């Protein structure tokens, strides 16, 4: 038989046999999904930022509307300029981790605003650097008096792989969180959160570094696409190495004895 499966010899095509071995197969099954998942995650980040660029650029200069007139989960209301009245909950602030600016790691400061209309909404007051270590958290004091906040209604960029608890670790405040999960955060804050956040206007007081431009998050979608290509290239290289390592040429005598 010129090719096909033969017992004990793997997949054979003429004088060639494919016998990758269990170790190589196990490594492929473990690593390949990770590489493909990272590639898809980068593509999703690129999609998120491309959508942000398009929507945010078109609504940057629109007049503000009261938050109470909008639906936070309505896609058509995303990146609308809004105003909301209430008081900052300065004792229970969140530091959104893994926020990079100009190559420097840091946090986005998310402060709950207790709304006069009831409930609360997170206000992104801007970016702060990581500091000397993760054990020393930045001082992110917020005013306690009643105020009116203006900014843009938005959603935080979500990671493709949600690692860790959305409520963070430890019981100290401010609390470092890996991503935003409104239901989980509502539980630890003890108040219902609107399923959106407000990007505080750059000129508004009591904020940190705010550069709410279409390149939100440190860089644009192009670099995410480049990272995706790299991960997919590594996946392709792994598949090629797996195939190359598993293909063996059988000697003519051995083939004759097996026929």
Polypeptide structure, described:
The longest helix is centred in the first third of the chain and has 38 residues, at 22-59. It is elongated, with a radius of gyration of 26 Å. The protein has four helices and twelve strands, in the order βββαβββββββαβαβα. With 259 residues, it is an alpha+beta fold. The model is unreliable at 1-9 and 253-259 (pLDDT under 50). It has two domains: 3-40 and 222-258, no CATH class; 62-218, no CATH class. The protein starts with a strand and ends with a helix. The chain has a five-stranded mixed barrel. The protein has helices at 22-59, 182-189, 221-246, 252-258, and strands spanning 3-6, 10-13, 16-18, 65-66, 81-88, 94-101, 104-115, 120-129, 147-154, 175-177, 193-200, 247-249.
